[in-house]
Amino acid sequence: MEYKKLAELYEKLGATTKRLEKIDILAKFLKNLEEKDKEVLYLLLGDIYPEYDERKIGISSQLAIKAISKATGIKTEDVVKEWKTIGDLGKVVKKLVSQKKQSTLQAKKLTTEKVLENLRKLPELEGKGTVERKISLITELLTSASPVESLYLIRTLLRDLRIGIKSSTVRDALVKAFFPLDKESQKEAAEKIQNAYDISQDLSKIYELAKKGEKVSSIKLEAGKPIKVMLAQKAKSIKEAFEKVGKPCAIEYKYDGFRMVINKKDNKITLYTRRLENVTKQFPDIVNVVKSNVKGESFIIDSEIIGFNEKTKEYVPFQEISQRIKRKYNIDKMIKELPVEIKAFDLIFYNRKNLIKEPFEKRTKLLRKIIKSLKFKISVADQKITDSEEEAKEFYKKAIKDNQEGLIFKNLKAPYKPGSRVGYMIKLKEELKDFDLVIIGAEYGTGKRAGWLSSFILACLDKKIDKFKTIGKMGTGIKEKISTNIGGTSFKELTKILKPLIIKTKGREVEIKPKIVVSVTFQEIQKSPKYTSGFALRFPRLTALRPDKSPSDVTTLDEIKKEYEAQRKK
Ligand code: ATP
Known about the structure:
Layout: H1 3-15, H2 19-32, H3 40-44, H4 61-72, H5 76-86, H6 89-101, H7 112-121, H8 130-143, H9 147-157, H10 167-178, H11 183-200, H12 203-212, E1 233-234, H13 238-245, E2 249-254, E3 258-265, E4 268-272, H14 284-293, E5 299-308, E6 315-316, H15 318-321, H16 323-326, H17 331-337, E7 340-350, E8 353-354, H18 360-370, E9 378-380, E10 383-386, H19 389-401, E11 406-410, E12 425-429, E13 434-444, E14 453-462, E15 467-474, H20 478-485, H21 491-498, E16 502-506, E17 509-512, E18 517-521, E19 524-527, E20 535-538, E21 541-545, H22 557-569
Parallel strand pairs: 1-12, 7-9
Antiparallel strand pairs: 2-10, 2-11, 3-4, 3-5, 5-6, 5-7, 7-8, 11-12, 13-14, 13-17, 13-18, 14-15, 16-17, 18-21, 19-20
Bound molecules: adenosine-5'-triphosphate.
């Protein structure tokens, strides 16, 4: 198919903010799409393979700039200059390509096949000369692209299409295109497609079946493939948690580790993270434990992996074992130094049977039957079934004493909903601490945050030498936090306050005079060589601007050290 057609579709979709209009536009497109072009559905969602596939494009803005420069013959500095004023590299390339295209005519017509072919080579490249090869693959596409096509090529490369399309929009468009029945049957069709998507995460495959007039329910859940996990909603109190899941419910320890989905099929164990990454190689210890302690010819188990100290046998915070997820060498040494234990908490598939629709009480019962507990190796999550707030309170205290994060409340009758945060699981954690910190640097944002400072370097005070020391970078969650806590202030506002305080600019980064104090919550303090304080905050979030505080009032390095020690002891 001509890439031009797809670019036109992106334009139409981006031009409206109305979901129903988007669905209409997409439905028409999908109806006319030929079966041979089914992979266009990946591009439509800004991807090159189904969502679960690990091969993602992953191109940095810097590399994209180099490719734009090569394709247009414009110096990288000049591309960066444009980027700074326009903010969106897609728009930059569109402008530059259209300037260039006035003199040269488009040589070749770009097809979606060619785009996919080149983009799919990107994640495969390794070793010497990778950067050059990537640049030339992108340049090849850009030189045959029209201005609009180049815009979407660059946005696809940066994985930020900005046309407001989610998998659920495509799902509803598929319903509209292929099941044009009455409302009730449409609802049923949407549910069927959603179910098929939840277990396959492959809209192209669903489109293919629908187009052929075959049943989408013929897609079956299989072990061995990554699946999106069910997510938890939050509660602020035990009372609220009970209200959300209903009484009685199951309450379990909220373990402080990382999520892992354990699969068995044809005698082979495969392990996936919640981001669908295959981590089997990193955890041969888990593979062995599962092989000898879990019954069944095939299964999918949802679990949390936690670390413990080999000597003291105490459970340790997540950050201490987090490096095991990425480490691909010296695994044996890692296993000894950072041993882990499996805490299984759900069973999604067992002996070729899909259990997604079964109630949690049944799944958890079966899970307990198939796992042989082995201390510090594998067990099922500690659980109580109760309707008593008193009992929940005691259990919560016990969880915290055991170095875990809190509790998870679970609806006993609920199905497993892959990839959704539907409120069948409610998390209750300890209140977060606040630090007051001063902003001493920032970075201009991209995309929706273009033109605004959107990421902020935070610092504490080293009282001994009267110097500010960095302790982290705060970016996510800011927008909502600012608007709820300081009455509608936004990135824009924060930029306005900070801009006059800029001392130095280097690319997108700026140094800022230490004047503005902010209150910041975080999940944990970690040791980190990255920042001059020697510490980093995990998940820092802005809760308020503190115009009432001066930079000399911010949290001191000594206080942070104390807090870090307290956290370790706990
Ligand atoms: P999100 O809410 O997006 O998952 P998050 O990663 O910060 O954010 P948490 O606040 O840690 O998530 O809460 C949910 C996570 O708790 C689950 O994803 C899972 O990894 C973990 N968890 C620990 N113990 C359990 C348990 N018994 N049942 C379910 N999840 C558990």
